[in-house]
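Journal club side-thread
Mid-discussion, someone asked how the predicted structure for our own chain would compare to the paper's figures. Pasting it here so we can look after the session.
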Amino acid sequence: MRDRTHLEQIERWGKFVKENPNSWKREHTQFIDAQIMKAWDFYKRLEKTKGGMEKIRKLKELRLSQSNRL
């Protein structure tokens, strides 16, 4: 179970969304885009390491096997 601070953050975000119906989407999009960029940067760095491409292949296989369980 997550701690109380996590629940408090969810409540703050919910309040922000209710109070800012037109601007929360922009902030959320910026956050998601930043997460995607970090992932791309990670994969680019991993590709350059010894065995990096093999690790990426294994990660993709793991992701596919987990999505097939849903």
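Post-session note: Residues 24-47 form the longest helix (24 residues).
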